[in-house]
Amino acid sequence: MNQTQLSKKQEQGNVGNALKHTTEEQGQHSLTKFTDEQLKLIKDTVAKGATDDELKLFLYRAQSLGLDPLKTGQIYFIKYGSGPGTIVVGIDGFRARANRTGKRS
């Protein structure tokens, strides 16, 4: 395994460990039910450029709203430059929440 592969493997572990450690500290059930591979996919695509703290917040927000960041159109993480990221609920996210209420026409 070369140095680049080793660094990527360590980064994957850091993201997963950071999320697991946070939930254990809070004494709550797991923030996510994602595999390490899915967490890496989310960090590399859906929440590209997110810091570990921003990723944790994004995943917490998605879970608290009952949304899946791997389903297109439900929830987005947007980041420009070095500023903080923004979490945006998409139209499919609003639809999913409305469907759960049973009051959607």
Outline:
With 105 residues, this protein is mostly helical.
Calculate the terminal CA-CA distance, rounded to whole Å: 55 Å
Q: Gyration radius, to the nearest Å?
A: 15 Å
Average pLDDT, all residues: 80
Q: What is the tally of helical segments?
A: 4
Q: Which features characterize this protein?
A:
single chain; 105 residues; mainly alpha; two-stranded antiparallel ribbon; 4 helices; 2 strands; globular
Describe this structure in words.
The chain is mainly alpha-helical and 105 residues long. The chain has one domain. It has helices spanning 3-26, 36-46, 52-65, 91-101; strands at 75-78, 86-89. The protein has a two-stranded antiparallel ribbon. The N and C termini lie far apart (55 Å).
Write the layout of secondary structure elements.
Blueprint: H1 3-26, H2 36-46, H3 52-65, E1 75-78, E2 86-89, H4 91-101
Antiparallel strand pairs: 1-2
Helix pairs in contact: 1-2
